Amino acid sequence: MARSTAAKKPAGTNDAPAPRKRNGIQGRTGLTGWLFISPVVLILGLFLVIPVLMAAWVSVSDWTGRGSPLSGDVNFIGGENFSNILGGEGLGRVSLLFGEVFGMLVVCHVLLFCRMLSGLGLSR
Questions:
Q1: For the chain, what are the domain ranges?
Q2: pLDDT tens digits along 69-89
Q3: In the list 25, 52, 88, 106, which could disulfide-bond 92, CB 3.0-4.6 Å?
Q4: Residue 65 CB neighbours (<10 A)
């Protein structure tokens, strides 16, 4: 009788190989990535997000343009500024007309510019 040279494995063991470690951002690599992008996040926050939030606050407050828009004298008035502009006698109609005319001019110029570029053979 031939003897098997393979050692017997205890019951309940698995022949499957050990799972591989996944390559990804882990440990110091993740920290290094965050350190590299932190200047961009700070600059975007400083020069993009904060001005957008300030503009949103000014549009719904009664700030007159003098002093700080964050002072205690400035009150929240909601959409009253927008209703004054759109519902006013002269300014609302003039601003809407100007917006429509300006918008149409922009669209016409963009279409003309695209037509000129297509004539040059630069686009597909």
A1: 28-87, 93-124
A2: 999 999 999 988 888 777 766
A3: 88
A4: 6
Please name the amino acid found at residue 114: C
Closest alpha carbon to 63 in 52, 72, 74: 74
CA 31 – CA 37 distance, rounded (Å) = 10
CA 65, CA 71: separation in Å to the nearest integer? 12
User: How far apart (Å, rounded) are the C-alpha atoms in residues 103 and 97?
Assistant: 10
> Helix, strand, or coil here: 76?
strand
CA geometry: angle 55, 48, 108, nearest 5 deg: 80
Instruction: Identify the three-state secondary structure at position 61.
Output: strand
Q: At what angle do helices 80-87 and 91-120 cross, to 10 degrees?
A: 90
Residue 27 identity: G
